[in-house]
């Protein structure tokens, strides 16, 4: 069952303010345990169905009004679609914001990693040699990732020629390790 359609249909009228007058007082009369269960359902993303259920129960306690305008199925469906689209837009916006926060955190983490690496470049080159000595694909990938960070440090410090020379020397020493050389080439470290 479409919770958006239920929510629209449960309202009973396009005049929401009139149809909900007194709902706070009515909710206050609900048992505390029931209120906690309803809040937990809302927190778990079931807000539309909880709202629809509450509105249906509240409306059942009120006298039936004959002066409320009737809505067609088409009007109900159109309003449910409008609300669904709004909900999806909000959801997409929240997801985009979450991705943005994650990207910013990753950028800060990379900046900190590169700053620390700039202070220990010689050790990092030794780490690259140690990873290559393992002679495993995963170790080669780690070595190339470290080389990419060393390249980024070289870009920032203006030491690209020295980096390029060390990389060339490394490639010559390990030229028979085709997987490693391929990984280095794919990483485009010598742009």
How does the SSE layout of this entry go?
Blueprint lengths: L2 H9 L4 H4 L3 H6 L3 H29 L12 H46 L2 H14 L2 H21 L2 H14 L4 H10 L4
Helix pairs in contact: 1-4, 1-5, 5-7, 6-7, 7-8, 7-9
Description:
With 191 residues, the chain is mostly helical. 80% of the residues lie in helices and 0% in strands. The protein has helices at residues 3-11, 16-19, 23-28, 32-60, 73-118, 121-134, 137-157, 160-173, 178-187. Helix 1 (3-11) packs across helix 4 (32-60), helix 5 (73-118) crosses helix 7 and helix 6 (121-134) packs antiparallel against helix 7 (137-157). The model has no long low-confidence stretch (mean pLDDT 89).
In short:
The chain is mainly α and about 190 residues long. It contains 9 helices and no strands.
| Helix content class | over 70%
Q: Quick one: how many beta strands? A: 0
What distance lies between the first and last C-alpha atoms, to the nearest angstrom?
56 Å
Backbone shape: rod-shaped
Rg (C-alpha, Å): 31 Å
Strand content: under 5%
Number of helices: 9
- Helix/strand order: HHHHHHHHH
Unreliable stretches: none
Mean of the pLDDT scores?
A: 89
Task: Identify the quaternary structure here.
Answer: single chain
Biggest pleated-sheet summary? none
Structural class: mainly alpha
